[in-house]
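Bench notes, afternoon.
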Amino acid sequence: MQYPIQTMENVFQAVSENLHLIKTKKYRNAIKEFNESYQTVILISVHHFGCEDIKDKKLFSAFTKKTISNSSINILEYQEKLIQKLNRKEEIRAYSFLPSGLGHYESLDELVNQLIRQSCLEEKKYIYADIELDNVSELEQVFIALTKELKNTLLLVVGIDDNDDVPFLLWKEKETKKNWIIRHLNEKEYSPFIHMSRDFENLYTRSRRDIFNSKVPYSKMEFAALCIPYQLRFLLIYEEDGNMLGFIEGQILNTEDLTKYADSRVMKINKLFVKKENRRKKIATRLYQELVQRAKTEKCDRIEVQVYHFTPEAQSFFASLGLKVLSYQYEINVEKK
């Protein structure tokens, strides 16, 4: 029997069914978006968001729009329990982003970036976000960014308002399957590799001419050495439909010969690059995850990466993956006589 989605509780039950948290299929055919599986399901609750606000057709044109009955249900408490259940099952990872409390976001821009980065992780996941607004027009930047960047995702938006009825919006995007591979290079691929990665060195020479002066990431000799598989220092390329789109360089370091350090085996990320027009397509995440698997195989104790201040995108990327800032480097130029 098909049940219509009429209340907030119905929405949460439909989400639980889609995530296989409960075995019922009451709402499977109520709305076509629920009758599919997704890599990512995101539910956003928006305070002060009422039915009058969805009349802006331009802002919400990409969404399926419905009206549901408000309820006295404590949404935050319900979501907390749902997330705990999902994480106990470990088949689907669950996360929350809230305006206050532990791990809160500072701005809507930060929230959008976190949602996009988290959705890129190669795992099945559920994400809940809570937004407090003074003006509903602030949602425009959120929806434009999300509907542009999210792939293989079901995005749900529910209003939290004083009125009896609240809006319920749905949007989905199924990811187009492409053939991609992460592999080692061979030394004969030096020219196409340099052509692909030419912007990498430009960033560093442009930002720190006092340190970097090379026009290419590697000399031919250095590149050839990195192409030898299973060395402590290695280079991996991301290739999609025969096109090189990014690379990562890793290096395994042992501290056992350094007297001031405890014995450990460290995987260091020396370089990570994705062509500008191909960013936010999970490429950097996939390269990083490949390196993580290598670190586990090599029984490394930790992963380290040095990020310069002029690469804020890299800072946000590694922070979103859970890497912590554990040291700072300061410098000052010495005046020459």
